[in-house]
Amino acid sequence: MARRKVKLQYIVNKSSRRNTFRKRKEGLLKKVYEITTLCDIKAAAIIYSPFDVEQEVFPSHPEVHEMLMRFQDMSEKDKTKNMVN
Amino acid sequence: MARRKVKLQYIVNKSSRRNTFRKRKEGLLKKVYEITTLCDIKAAAIIYSPFDVEQEVFPSHPEVHEMLMRFQDMSEKDKTKNMVN
DNA sequence: CGTTCTATATATAAAGG
DNA sequence: TCCTTTATATATAGAAC
């Protein structure tokens, strides 16, 4: 979006892809922060990126870990049920 | 945003909060899908909401579970390091 | 490679059904 | 309560540094 509408597909050019990744990651974390604040809920985003040295990025609360634990405890059936595409 | 700028704070009115939650959750999942597609990375969002019957919502791939496993394996120090606020 | 600047695409608050 | 419709706030692609 912005200057030009972009097709929703893999960005081949590496520097463009990297730039888009950085900007969108920032936007995504902001959105997570906002919905968390506005609705007083727990939310987190996990991003695995080949660009960052650190492999996982976590926005949001320490409670995130608790959420993960809860997820781990769910049955496989429930996990599938809660997947959204 | 939209018709009126909204202060970034808890929305007291329940129906408004619920509506905002539903819309923003949808937008958030879309963003996750987009960054995933555009940059060919793995990403997921976890949302704990009192509005949904299901307690956790997961956008994105089956690989998400693998990501969580990797996170579980990280040392406490690394977990803290990867938290972003 | 990372930032900042803007024009434009998107997300979304309110309102209406 | 949920879906549409809009007006407006935000996010962000591309450019320039």
UniProtKB/TrEMBL annotation, chains A, B:
Keywords, sorted A to Z: DNA-binding, Nucleus, Transcription, Transcription regulation
User: What's an example of a GO molecular-function annotation for this chain?
Assistant: protein dimerization activity
Pfam families per the record? Answer: SRF-TF
The organism's superkingdom is given as: Eukaryota
A GO cellular component term found in this entry reads: nucleus
Any GO BP: positive regulation of transcription by RNA polymerase II
The answer to whether the entry has keyword DNA-binding is yes
Q: Where in the cell is it found?
A: Nucleus
Q: What is its main location?
A: nucleus
For this protein, the record's InterPro entries field holds: SRF-like_MADS-box, TF_MADSbox, TF_MADSbox_sf
The UniProt entry, under PANTHER family, shows: AGAMOUS-LIKE MADS-BOX PROTEIN AGL80 (PTHR11945:SF387), MADS BOX PROTEIN (PTHR11945)
This one is known as Putative transcription factor MADS-type1 family
